[in-house]
Specification:
Distance between the termini of chain B: 113 Å
Largest sheet of chain B: 6 strands, antiparallel
Number of domains of chain A: 1
Strand order of the largest sheet of chain B: 2-1-11-10-7-8
CATH architecture of chain A: 2-Layer Sandwich
Number of strands of chain A: 7
CATH topology of chain A: Transcription Regulator spoIIAA
Shape of chain A: globular
Shape of chain B: elongated
CATH class of chain A: Alpha Beta
Structural class of chain A: alpha/beta
Number of strands of chain B: 26
Largest interface: A-B, 20 and 19 residues
Radius of gyration of chain A: 12 Å
Strand order of the largest sheet of chain A: 1-2-4-6-7
Oligomer: heterodimer
Chain lengths: 114, 566
């Protein structure tokens, strides 16, 4: 298991457990999240444990984003470490994927829009 | 009070498992009351419930199902004494006795939990999976065993050994597959034709890859029965169907009837991880010497050897494919640098592995313009290389055909969106140089920003060009791209690079980083070749003994100082 999955109302909260999100675990993380999503299409990715993301890790995040967007949903990131944030910003991921400070803010951001 | 004692009996192995308590769980999981140590049995396969002496059975959504008297169970079913319960490869008879005395007579008592354990085996052997509930006729085959005139067991063993020996010599599937069939024909003299079908890794479809016929004229129309193969694939079991004309278990197809096949053996060819690579099928029209259960067990054994050989051959083929991919990739990359008066170009390309996800190109555009592109496909190896090949073609098409660069980028993105898998994307930067007007136009799609060194200014300035206006990488979603334009003065230079440079790590784990990159480029010589070499030298110095872990591409273009007249 690479991801901790919780539910908060109709929001799926996924927390990758490893300190890195890269070639070694991006595929399983992606699969675990997408299979946990089921009909749910509001996804919060809690990045509190992740210290390092490489391009495959970004690919996993993008893949989850594509998955929920296709169903009219959205993906929010939260608790993103500065080094990880730099990588996400380098590929402009923050433009299409809101990055919030806390997990609660991320979950609330779905409610406030609904 | 009457005590009713119920038990499950494995008649074949002469075992008896008394059913105690309200619930008896049967499955592969060691926590089950009766453990069936076989990979084809689900962890919790079925339960037997005892409600005051009335027993019922419920399948727990097992992969391969539970059958009672040949019927697959959909819901909880009441059990009666004598009922035949089958799961893959195993048949148990449900018995209820009025007196508990019988149970003590049996060879096995309740303390013996594991069936396979009693036999001293870890799993129920594959050969026993032959006795599948779908083909119940098989259990009666032993009766006419004497009638069969097949080769002697030693000859069969020799045949299997021959397969093993042959297979160890060749790495080419085109040779290996026919060899397997040759050996099988030697083992099974009754076989009239044989096929090996392999799953196409792309489409998943079963494709005939080798066929052999005892008589040459048979080959006009191969009697491949899809329904039998389907049954093998779905059940994952070997199937023997004797006298296909009357076998009700196998849905009759035209092909089977047309050829009046008397017996068919079809076995799955499984990878070590259990994935099914394909099937081997042998057909015989010999009405007397029909295939036996024993033959099927032997074919299963041969298929295990074949599977191993096929895997070795496939790995070898993939290696050759990789070689081919390397060749293709090399051919896609520019071999000569553009030669334009007043401009200079230099590049460096180093794949971390034999094939790379990095890409660069020089593309001549209408209106005396030249595009310099650098891209980085996520991932490494084969799939990245193939995507890179696709990117190379798509880039040329879009850039040459769309008059506006922003349109070209959007088109390119849409093209890639449709062909890229969900977890892939490409960071990409294009710099178009107008060779007449000395205008430089850059669009950045999630790529590290190119470095623009203004040699034309004093002091020399260096900036991350168009960093703020970079868009999303290609293949993420349809979005507009913004372009940034500037005049390219004499002495100006533009350096495009992949993150293999900035993210290069040394022995102590430190990253090269953009600060050091900036410092190096600022101090580098004012010609394209000199600048690239200065960067490479500094990267080398930084990395010390460590080899680059990532693909590295550097492209530099500059406007020479002397060409003021242009």
């Amino acid at each position: 298991m690479d991801v901790l999955i919780e539910r908060d109302g109709d929001v799926l909260v996924a927390t990758p457990v490893a300190e890195h999100l890269d070639l070694s675990n991006s595929d399983s993380i992606r699969h675990e999240i997408i299979s946990a999503l089921g009909d749910c299409h509001k996804l919060v990715l809690v990045m509190e444990r992740v210290e390092f993301v490489d391009s495959r890790g970004c690919g996993a995040i993008i893949s989850c984003l594509k998955h929920v967007s296709a169903a009219g949903g959205d993906l929010k990131l939260c608790e993103v470490k500065p080094a990880v944030r730099n990588v996400l910003e380098l590929i402009r991921l923050h433009r299409i994927c809101e990055i919030l400070d806390t997990r609660d803010q991320a979950i609330y951001s779905f409610e406030s829009r609904a | 009070m009457e005590i009713r004692m119920a038990a499950l009996c494995d008649i074949r192995r002469n075992l008896k498992f008394p059913l105690h308590g309200v619930l008896t769980m049967i499955g592969r999981d060691p926590g089950c009351d009766i453990v069936v140590d076989s990979p084809v049995v689900s962890a919790r396969h079925f339960i037997i419930l005892n409600r005051k002496g009335s027993y019922s059975l419920e399948d727990l959504g097992s992969m391969n199902g539970t059958f009672v008297n040949g019927q697959r169970l959909a819901r909880r079913t009441r059990l009666f004494t004598g009922d035949r319960i089958s799961v893959v490869g195993l048949t148990l008879i449900f018995q209820v006795e009025d007196s508990p005395g019988d149970a003590s007579r049996d060879a096995v008592n309740a303390s013996s939990k594991t069936m396979a354990g009693i036999q001293g085996e870890r799993t129920i052997p594959l050969s026993e999976l032959v006795n599948a509930p779908l083909v119940p006729e098989l259990s009666s085959l032993e009766v006419d065993g004497d009638l069969r005139l097949s080769v002697k067991p030693e000859a069969k063993l020799r045949g299997v050994l021959e397969i093993a020996r042959n297979l160890s010599h060749s790495l080419d599937l085109k040779i290996v597959l026919p060899q397997i069939l040759d050996s099988l024909f030697a083992i099974f003299p009754a076989a009239d034709c044989g096929f090996i079908l392999l799953r196409d890794p792309q489409t998943g479809a079963m494709t005939p890859c080798a066929a052999k016929y005892r008589r040459p004229h048979d080959s006009d129309s191969p009697p491949v029965s899809r329904s039998i193969i389907q049954q093998v694939l779905v059940g994952g079991r070997a199937i023997l169907s004797r006298d296909a004309g009357v076998d009700t278990q196998i849905k009759l197809t035209d092909s089977v009837q047309h050829f009046d096949i008397r017996s068919i053996m079809c076995v799955p060819v499984n990878r070590e991880d259990g994935d099914c690579m394909g099937v081997i099928q042998l057909d015989s029209r010999d009405r007397v010497n029909q295939f036996s259960e024993e033959d099927l067990a032997l074919l299963v054994c041969a298929s295990l050897l074949a599977a191993r050989a096929m895997e070795v051959a496939r790995v070898h083929e993939e290696r050759q494919e990789l070689e081919a991919a390397t060749q293709i990739q090399r051919s896609l990359l520019p071999t000569v640098r553009p030669s334009c008066a007043g401009f200079q170009f230099f590049d460096y390309y180093a794949p971390a592995h034999r094939v790379s996800g990095d890409y660069f190109d020089y593309i001549r555009l209408p209106g005396n313009r030249l595009a310099v592109v650098v891209g980085d496909v996520v991932g490494k190896g084969m799939s990245a290389a193939l995507l890179m090949a696709h990117l190379a073609a798509a880039t040329r098409i879009c850039l040459v055909n769309a008059p506006k660069l922003t349109d070209a980028m959007r088109q390119l993105n849409v093209l890639l969106l449709n062909s890229i898998s969900d977890d892939r994307f490409i960071t990409f930067v294009v710099a178009v140089l107008d060779l007449d007007q000395f205008r430089l136009t850059v669009i950045n799609a999630g790529h590290p920003p190119p470095l623009l060194r203004r040699g034309s200014r004093k002091p020399i300035q260096l900036e991350d060009f168009a960093a703020d206006l970079a868009g999303l990488p290609l293949g993420v979603r349809d979005c507009p791209y913004e372009q940034v334009e500037t005049t390219f003065e004499p002495g100006d230079m533009l350096l495009l690079y992949t993150d293999g440079a900035t993210e290069m790590r040394n022995n102590s784990g430190a990253m090269y980083g953009s600060e050091r990159l900036h410092a190096t480029i600022l101090a580098a010589p004012g010609d394209a070749e000199g600048m690239v070499n200065a960067l490479l030298q500094d990267l080398q110095q930084f990395a010390q003994t460590r080899l680059a872990g990532d693909d590295l591409t550097i492209v530099c273009l500059g406007r020479t100082c002397q060409s003021k007249s242009g």
